[in-house]
Amino acid sequence: MTAATLFDLLERLTSLMRIWNRQHPLLAELQPIQVSALIYLARCNRYSNTPLAVSEYLGLTKGTVSQSLKALEAKGLIEKAQDQHDRRSVHLQLTGAARELLAAIAPPEFLVTALAQMGEREHTLEALLGELLRQIQRNQDVPGFGLCRTCRFHQQRDGAPFCGLTLEPLHQSDVELICREHQAA
Ligand code: SF4
Question: pTM for the whole thing?
Answer without folding.
Answer: 0.89
